[in-house]
Structures
1.
Amino acid sequence: MQILANNPNRKSWLKVDKGSDFPIQNIPFGVFITKDDIITIGTRIGEYAIDLGAFHQLGYFNGIPLTDDLFMQDSLNDFISDGRKTWRLVRNRIAEVFEAGNSTLRDNQKHREIIIFDMDEIEMLLPVNVGDYTDFYSSKEHATNVGLMFRGKDNALMPNWLHMPVGYHGRSSSIVVSGTPIHRPCGQILPSGSSSPVFGPTQSLDMEIEMAFITTDVNNLGEPIPVDEAEEYIFGMVLFNDWSARDIQKWEYVPLGPFLGKNFASTISPWIVTMDALEPFRCESPKKEIEPLPYLQQKRTNNSFDVKLQAVIKTNNGDENLISETNFKHMYWSMSQQLAHHTVNGCNVRSGDLMGSGTISGPTKNSYGSMLELSWGGKEPLTLKDGTTRSFFNDGDTVVIRGYCENEKVNIGFGTCSGKISPPFKRKK
Amino acid sequence: MQILANNPNRKSWLKVDKGSDFPIQNIPFGVFITKDDIITIGTRIGEYAIDLGAFHQLGYFNGIPLTDDLFMQDSLNDFISDGRKTWRLVRNRIAEVFEAGNSTLRDNQKHREIIIFDMDEIEMLLPVNVGDYTDFYSSKEHATNVGLMFRGKDNALMPNWLHMPVGYHGRSSSIVVSGTPIHRPCGQILPSGSSSPVFGPTQSLDMEIEMAFITTDVNNLGEPIPVDEAEEYIFGMVLFNDWSARDIQKWEYVPLGPFLGKNFASTISPWIVTMDALEPFRCESPKKEIEPLPYLQQKRTNNSFDVKLQAVIKTNNGDENLISETNFKHMYWSMSQQLAHHTVNGCNVRSGDLMGSGTISGPTKNSYGSMLELSWGGKEPLTLKDGTTRSFFNDGDTVVIRGYCENEKVNIGFGTCSGKISPPFKRKK
């Protein structure tokens, strides 16, 4: 089946600003709530949110086999479970109905009022009910940088790193949608030179610029997925900020890995951009330095995606300070390799599961994906436009991650993944 | 409100064998499916399963404010969300209706046929939809033993261990109910003396004798729970076998912790025994060797529970080989301390979340909670009744964990947590 929705020459009868993240070729999926407290699955074109529950009820998906309430839900999990064929039929139909020359909905003012909202009339919610969240660690630059700082030069990149996409389990409950404020977390911190920890707010609140992919139902417990089939099970991608408290992490993480240093919050962008929409932006991933074991050898070499990423600190005075420019294509291990590795022991992966790439650091200093690396552990603080400096984030800072793909014909973007840091929680007396 | 259901002198009109894990004082909660494919929440007395959906529909919970379909569900999550007061009212009413002298249901043959099943007429399912699963590492004996083998004497117990209940996130999707077969997992293994891994089935498939507790909705994101309030949020406990592949784990776990060495399966016992039922079996936990930070200082010292645990290998010839006898009371950190630590950074915990104790090892060799420790890394294999030896498990072995509390008046048990090991998965051609 062709991905008709990707036709780069199509225009919509809905206004789309030049350079918008959401032209009619994107058609991402999300969940939103209207002013009347109706929760629905939707898509977005330009600055308009489209209620797919209403769109379906009014017959615009006629001829596609879909359950009646598939889009009148508070998560995309069931839709994602329906699989790639359904995703493609649905995107193709949306593209057709909103195409400039199609008058069916365009000229039906009553239906337009029910189906189409201005973005500022609605509020985005979490798009999926994340069953399990796994975070990988697949940027060689990031793993090397952190290793240098945490373990020194001799142990920077661990011996297993070039043999497998190292990963670990994160916390699903604290995944929040872009815009949710982030309390500065408290925890145990080992003061430099001391052997006893103290308790207090983290002094090294950090971001991790990541992308994450969301899966459909992949396998039954016990059944590995071959690496060359893995792409079939990936629905789409989001921007992802895996907030980290480096001092808490450093004291707790040996031997079982990060826990409270990470699980206080992770922020995702609200619109899941489908793999179909990203298809025109495939690119090669870095050449493997060691031949991996056969179960990780992928026939396809253009297994990565050219997604440009930026991180910005917004200070309270409104300044936007660009602090990093990186790209998803730097990831050493592909998503297919991550998924093949994850299931090679029979671990089952379900619809709505989320897998983070790990911090995406590029080869140059301005492309590092965390403050830990950008300020090199606090030794080289960044100076912002207002003259203040940052080794890590201050209360009141808003951290914004943006991401987009572009070629000569079309621009496909992810919107923003943003969170403002609020002071540590205080218990009401 | 009194825990009337705990009255040790009460007898049921349902037959309960002497020494049964499920006298009328237990009243655990689980989910089962009948031969007619009806899925319901239930409880158990002796060898009888009680359909609480039907019990409620037929009016036996009249006067207790419960939603109509609270028990006609495939998980306990909503019931657990209702909180301690509801759990207590429900257990008290069940105890009352099944008390020997109460003729209401006893003498209503038609209702009995709808509500009561023989245990062999039904099949137990997973009792909760586990949102997040956290595994702690709270047995000092286990942490020391593993540290000795993995890291040597000088780094056996890490510097953070006595300061915090170390924990990490596990995989929710692969938590299975007792009786589910466990495929021997494959993965990367580093042969001794080599610097390159090979791929194959684990050669060191292990159990971890654990208990796990299940929470109700604890907190909003950002809000820590004080240690002295934490017990209020714990619904009950199960037996838990956190299957582990030691060779896979050893190669992958630095620096982000265990992943594929653990996430292929964890088995839980099907009946959740409530904290109310365990109340008579409170005991002191081991004295703290270092005073913890204030947020972990618990006023109550009888914060542990005296639960006797056994692990057995059943071989294909039917032999039962007792390989370990341990006790939950050995845990250094209490469940309240685990929950206070887990939320101290604001991490939110929801109804149905599951928290494992970590392997429960006692001070003596026959009380170790894993084959890794029992066979001391394979150096001292166990000899079974049939003359074969085990450093780790063989295909065909069934591993059974049992647990119970007893005093002079009553016996409260957990039933069994069991899994048979099947050969590695083979893909159909």
2.
Amino acid sequence: MKVLVSLGGNAILKHGQKGTAEEQSVNVQNTAKHLAALLRRGERIAITHGNGPQVGNILLQNEISKETLPPMPLDVCGAESQGMIGYMLQRALRSELGSGAANVPVATIVSQTPAFRNPTKPVGPFYTAKEAKQLRESKGWRMISDSGRGYRRVVPSPTPLDILERDTIIRLFETGTVVIGVGGGGVPVIRDKDGKLRGVEAVLDKDRTAALLGKTLGVDTLLILTDVEQVFINYGMPDQRALDRMTVQECKKYLAEGQFPSGSMGPKVESAVSFLSDSNGKRVGIASLEMAEKALDGRAGTTITN
Amino acid sequence: MKVLVSLGGNAILKHGQKGTAEEQSVNVQNTAKHLAALLRRGERIAITHGNGPQVGNILLQNEISKETLPPMPLDVCGAESQGMIGYMLQRALRSELGSGAANVPVATIVSQTPAFRNPTKPVGPFYTAKEAKQLRESKGWRMISDSGRGYRRVVPSPTPLDILERDTIIRLFETGTVVIGVGGGGVPVIRDKDGKLRGVEAVLDKDRTAALLGKTLGVDTLLILTDVEQVFINYGMPDQRALDRMTVQECKKYLAEGQFPSGSMGPKVESAVSFLSDSNGKRVGIASLEMAEKALDGRAGTTITN
């Protein structure tokens, strides 16, 4: 089976950890065990990953040391995090696979993702001018006047359009390399009027780019590994229910009902829908890292099909 | 012609610059112009680069913010710098080549270099004697007095033995990708007794790894671009002389005479000797970035042959 594994942040750094190199190294080594298990049973895998905590820390280091050193913009910090996480994953997976029989190449491709230029999106409820002012001050939110109906929070949310290194990633995947790419959703770039590429200070949704990468690679399965066991509906309510299977139709229905929080499960389910539309994609598994193998067989997590 | 271009630090950040993203972006765009000129005349190129100023700044950011965030070790910082510089080079070269006819793939491979430990090399900022003492005690760093300008941390500068991602780099190069690899000499790793790979807090000499990469790729020519026009003998003496051509024999003779400083031209000439021994290597050019094209034709810089 051809599988794109999308690793959540917890595959690298767990909630509550400080983020030392040792902690991350131990987590990544554990992640590599699960990935190696997939390779040993003959799956062909590509890997993409989140970078939230890591790029957050790099940004904060830049901010703290800005009196001494010129701070790098978000796109450059994102590229740094791709190097950092790619290295840790490569090293751990290479260690796990050993240098013997299972000597499949493992390589990270620093990746750029052209994205829409106007990367803001209003989210959440409408507020009055006074409430908007308070939220700006207390939370640092960007608030805009929306359609004359009041004020709303806007968040950067560029839509990935392409992956600049797609040819390279495809070529490596097709020739048997475990390719790690489009980390953190890729570094968002835009093309100026004169054709020059420019980095954008924004963060791409890694789940959204994972769907694009999965289609680009023509994989059968997108395996989204996160810190929950399954997708739930009516979460936190008396009639809460874990879902073993969902169709794309059900996904759309639940999304419309607002069943999935926009910061966590929402983008994953949207990504599943996108991956299964207009592509070779047959199946999406959403599961915990520990259940990766079982989820691939539909024996754990939530399996989404057309 | 198959050419490995080894970019000196000044191709990315020039002496005396602060190191802002804008400065680096402008420098890298200029570098990309010269690289694109080589591609347009039909050369097949791979690229490697130094990372001294960048990894130094990342280390210093880690140091300054250590009360807030756990500092990353040198190997992880090196991987970050590969992501950062690879991204900037890719973006600039992609911009320069445009999206039209010359649409050759450009990709950075995060690279690990298994290495011996022994020699040493100063890295990062200068400290006072008092700070140096504290760092020795608190971190166990080795500190040396460097050129009378203060104290610096010294790290092992091991000999590169192999490039873990060699198969991937070769495959991409052979199929026409402009591959950027082994940045900063690669992240140095060693294999523990149990076969696990471990990062080493060390800096590899990029010139030394460039020779290894050039042999690995089987290129004809290694083009070392730096901030001087040519190799000199009797530098700074009344009989100072710039060399248009050198043989490997002459290189060895001059090296034995101590003609080349160990921090700058020495490793480049050693790298040339290494590249031209036991390989397909026919020629090494040492020249300034601006003279890249002419140097390839033997009309600028110093040309070294067997």
